[in-house]
Amino acid sequence: MALRLVTHGLRKAFNRRIVFENIDTSVSEGETLLIAGRNGSGKSTLVKILCDVLSPSQGSVDITGAGPLNAFTRKALFGLVSPYLQLYDEFSAMENLQLAAALRGLHGDARIHEELLARVALDPKRADPVHGFSSGMKQRLKYALALAHHPRILILDEPMSNLDADGMTIVRGIMTEQRTRGILVVATNDLSDIDVHERKVDLNVRA
After folding, report:
1. How many Å is the Cα radius of gyration of the chain?
2. Least packed by Cβ within 10 Å: which of 3, 6, 31, 185?
3. How far apart are CA 158 and CA 168, in angstroms?
4. pLDDT at 31
5. In the chain, where do the E strands start and end?
6. Which residues pair with 81 in a beta bridge?
7. Cα 94 to the chain's mean position, in Å?
8. Neighbours of 71 (CB within 10 A)
9. Residue 164: CA atoms inside 13 Å, Cβ hemisphere, count?
10. Amino acid 109: pLDDT
11. Is 33 helix (H, G, I), strand (E, B) or coil?
12. Which of 62, 87, 88 has its CA nearest to residue 77?
């Protein structure tokens, strides 16, 4: 059975302010879901709900085709890149990857980590403290961290944030590859960030 991510009647409110409601959508393996919306429309909130970082006020997010899931194995399906994710600035790029692997209970294979850093053009900087990285380099490191456990569902919140042309090319390659092996979810207010999608949630019409 193919992997499938389905939302049923999602609603989120903070106090009396409704961020969004009645979000019903689905996306299957080999497809891309676009979450569109201007700043403040609730894109990041919806992203957090999809990957179990935040609970909805109402509704549910179901995953089928992945076998029996518990809280740990469900979270392991996801890779997330987002502006609000924090890196350990006092650690090197390699140390950030090693720590992330340890927190996920994975074996920290230095060769695999080097390949990940090379993929995002950070291998020459692998031993440098992250506090010296540019914002674009930090964004590329977030991609390495998100891909380290081969997530079946990759969620990208403002995927091109702080990236130059070379960084954007790297990310477009990652997005294309993810579509061949799992589910891709892209949340953005710039539709030029994404070339193709099969499903769409437009929060502009709900804001």
Report:
1. 17
2. 6
3. 12
4. 97
5. 4-14, 17-28, 32-36, 58-64, 78-81, 153-157, 183-188, 199-202
6. 156
7. 20
8. 8
9. 8
10. 77
11. strand
12. 62
The predicted pLDDT at position 200 comes to 97
* Residue keyed to tokens 């390699």: 94
Q: Give the amino acid at 55.
A: S
What does the pLDDT read at residue 136? 97
Cα(202)–Cα(182) distance, rounded to whole angstroms? 22
Residue 109 exposure: Cα atoms within 13 Å on the Cβ side: 8
The ranges of the chain with pLDDT < 70 are 108, 206-207
Q: Which two tokens stand for residue 60?
A: 């549910």
Whether the CB-CB separation of 88 and 99 falls below 8 Å is answered with yes
Helix axes of 93-103 and 135-147: crossing angle, nearest 10 degrees: 30
Strands 183-188 and 199-202 turn out to be unpaired
The residues pairing with 12 across neighbouring beta strands, listed in sequence order, are 20
The residue type of 113 is H
DSSP-derived 3-state class of residue 146:
helix
Terminal-residue alpha carbon distance, the chain: 35
